[in-house]
Fold each of these.
Amino acid sequence: MHMPNAVKSAALGFAVLALAAGPALAVTVQNPTDKPLEVTADLGASEPKVTVDAGKSAKLDCPEGCEVRAVGLNSYGVSAKTGDKLTVKDGALAFAEGASTEKGKTKTQ
């Protein structure tokens, strides 16, 4: 089956756009520690989890904003929105750019 070039170009453009939009709906969590870190995103009805290996980063889906919590850290969760980058600083989750976690924090168990 032969597809016209315009259809091929449109399909390729859509695929690139879909791939570019995916990560934009996520929060990136960096783990600079020497131990794996389990992180959850409170989306209301669900709380997906991801394990961030030591020295690595991972993305959590957070399409409309969420509370990000690290299991095992005696710290507060962080109210994050899509595109935010979080890291572990002084044993707690914090914005990677150095922003304060004071706004909208809740205690993680």
Amino acid sequence: MSKKEVSFKGRLEQQQVMAYLNELVTGLKTGTVYVQNGDGYVSLSPGRLINIEIEAVEKKDKEKLVIEMTWGRDEEVAEVSPLKISTSEPVVEESETTDQAEEDEQPSEEVTEQERSHAE
């Protein structure tokens, strides 16, 4: 089978983007997704197991969300950490790495006591 490809890049109203995403979800549920641009189109049949890669970037003046899905007939899915996508801002607990970095910035009491001994 020869390679067929359809691509699109542009700026759309949010409602149009949501309509495309809803059609994508419907296609995933039914087992066939058709993507058409002009005269060209691609017919995709997602498998039971789908590899997904999501990248979200927040910058000062720009935000980006990239979603990539791939599938094949005999691919196995590796176990990954759970992903959550929601409309609520997450509550993030301070990590041990952050706590350790803060501890490194502040002198320990032991060092402070030694400094006091030398000062007397």
Amino acid sequence: MKRKVLIVDDDASIQRLFVWSLKEPNLEVDCASNGKEALELINKKYYDIVVTDYDMPVMNGQEFIRAVKGKYPKKHIIGITSGMYEEQLYNAGADICIHKPFTLFEVNSLIHKFIKTGQNESGFLH
């Protein structure tokens, strides 16, 4: 069964990099350009893990994480920030924060780590 990853970033080049770097037979990657768009996707489809930037239009990463954790408290979320918003992301409920600049290897390793834990908001992956 494919594991589903949602990338939330307003930079289309970052989205493309993640889609390219996570191109694996057992992974399905979707992208959203802001928190509002991502919430719409999450309400329609299950995701094993979410990776979100902080600085986005319409709904920033902090607001997005708070909304997701309010509905899915055990959803794994990796926050990406320049560093100055790390505390806000953690306070909103991010499981871990990555500072820019980051390497794709670093983020992809975390994605695979969370997927291997076998947990989701109900405690177990589907």
